[in-house]
Amino acid sequence: MLSKIISDVDAFVWGPVMLVLLVGTGILLTIRCNFLTWRNLPWAIIKTLSKESRTKNRGEGDVSPFSALTTALAATIGTGNIVGVATAMVSGGAGALVWMWISACFGLSSKFSECMLAIKYREVNEKGEMSGGPMYTMKKALKNKKLGAVLGWLFALFAVIASFGIGNMTQGNSISTAVHETFGVSVSTVGAVITILALLIIIGGIKTISKVSSVVVPVMAIFYVIAGVIVILGNISNLPAGLSMIFHMAFSVKAVGGALCGNIVASMMNAARYGVARGCFSNEAGMGSAAITAAAATTDHPVRQAYINMTGTFWDTIVVCTITGLAIASSGVLGQIDPATGEMYIGSALTIAAFSTVLGKVGGYLVTIGIALFAFSTILGWEYHGEKAFEYLMGTHKFNMIYRIIFSLVAYVGATQTLELVWNFSDIANALMAIPNLICMLLLSGEIAKDVKEFQKTIEEEKAGK
């Protein structure tokens, strides 16, 4: 009974109202910022990849601009990029990929805005570390102080709950299941390894997490993208038909199928619903989580770092999710029956089947390793998000070490138990985090637009200086 109620609430909070609120906020912020978040994306990508972004020369903070981005990316590039894309394409048809792209375009402005505000209103704690995120923005920036205090407290509470569920247990479970199915290692062994590794890294705090993330995230993303490109090239003759099917299914009012779609038939509404939901879930734009990490960055101006953090949505959805989507669309396995189970390929099995069309058994191993690395890095990134929210609720950093130890141990529970109730509950907390954050961004949209337009002069000067 309880699990049915939780499941229904989960379906409601991730339903049309939430998705309209997420994308609608992104659309409004994009327009209010005069489309500067789109126009400056190439500049932001160049800045992100520059040598300067790896240093702490410009301004104050705990970690370099690049490390702040990769730690935020560690939390967002996860199983959603492999399993989530496959799930969206089965439930919403191949056209779901187009709606992931559309939600990501407007998600750029949401990600930019929450990160900019978090840096602008961050504080230095008693330990001398940066503390920031939507909860501090709500407390300090909103004119109605009572409303700001309530929204900030609720955001922090939901962030702590989500960190244990979506950021920890579900990831641990994805790793142990994938490794057990592919390599036959017991889930308890995998759980123990995850817990020990997480504890060793997390104990060191943001500096250690960011050091590991700034190496692991780019390496694993490049490794996965290269494998995906090989699969797409191996099925290149199917790619034109695959792309045609993706766009046809994305905008067809009536339910349609496609030659490369097997048993899947879907309409535009279905494609939009699953594409937007999985897109928002994967890149977390509008959730406020990435803003917590952005606040730790060394920068001389909130807008500068916000542009760097904004590229996270581009890397996550436009690059990594697209690779998964095109590999599946060109492989011919979408909507086909898995001979091993007698049922349609879904989730990670679909992505593994797509990669295996070109890479054989190695494809399965590569996807499993990808899932394990992506999910483990998510655990690290979310630990920092949860820790800072926990620090906000407690009003001091003194209990952070207790949080770190409990968080690492919970990963073992996640790896060894399938707790659907916990998953749905944490999924709800993840959606509920977004609500105070979106309200805050809408109330401060005028301030965001003003700061963006003022900083544009600096960008123009830097471009001219080249």
From TrEMBL:
Keywords in alphabetical order: Cell membrane, Membrane, Symport, Transmembrane, Transmembrane helix, Transport
Transferase recorded as keyword: no
Superkingdom of the source species: Bacteria
InterPro entries: Na/Ala_symport (IPR001463)
Membrane topology: Multi-pass membrane protein
Pfam families (UniProt xref): Na_Ala_symp
Major site of localization recorded for this protein: membrane
Subcellular locations according to the entry: Cell membrane
Keyword hit for Membrane: yes
Membrane-spanning parts: 12-31, 66-90, 96-119, 147-170, 182-203, 215-233, 245-266, 314-334, 362-382, 402-422
NCBIfam families: agcS (TIGR00835)
Protein family membership: Belongs to the alanine or glycine:cation symporter (AGCS) (TC 2.A.25) family.
Protein name: Sodium:alanine symporter family protein
Organism: Anaerostipes hadrus
